[in-house]
Amino acid sequence: MLRLLFVLVPAIHAQLCQPDAENAFKVRFSIRTALGDKAYVWDTNEEYLFKAMVAFSMRKVPNRETTEISHVLLCNVTQRVSFWFVVTDPSKNHTLPAVEIESAIRMNRNRINNAFFLNDQTLEFLKIPTTLAPPTDPPVPIWIIIFGVIFCIVIVAVVLLILSGIRQRRRKSKEPSEADDTEDKCENTITIENGIPCDPLDTKGGHINDAFMTEDERLTPL
Known about the structure:
The chain is an alpha+beta fold. The chain has helices spanning 2-16, 31-35, 44-58, 98-107, 109-115, 142-187, 215-219, and strands at residues 25-29, 72-75, 82-89, 94-95, 123-125, 191-193, 196-198.
């Protein structure tokens, strides 16, 4: 009876764990890539550790607290360290749903990676998306950054208003001096009539143009 049992169990396991079988997952290790000269050799001890980590993860899933290492089956193990695995339910002789296995692996992905000194890129569960890194808090609170930006905008606006006011004052101060210059130019302008240069009448100083004075006016001042 025992001999028959030893023959049937491996046969059942071989049927449950096959490439692309229902609820089966492929795993690929890149130990040499990750560790270089410090890479360890993959052997039965490492396989046992992997089974233990998967069983540990499954025991955290509701109603799967009784999962044992022997319930995790490996198959098609290659020298480049890739294989398929399933988690079985011995009481019903079938594999556990892939959804439960995926959920367990995702929840404990970091623990599994750390057990083998690898990460999501060097320990790949091909059908399970990689876990996202937890969001890191910025060293400076966001509200301080927003306040600093608004404060800088206000400072720039105030400086621009001050500069525009200074420019307007300078323009206003230049306008009277330009008007005086134009008046002086007009006063000093000499007109030419009939080929004779004539000084215009100086209305401010009462100056009379000599060209229009008679002989008597020149001899007898008023």
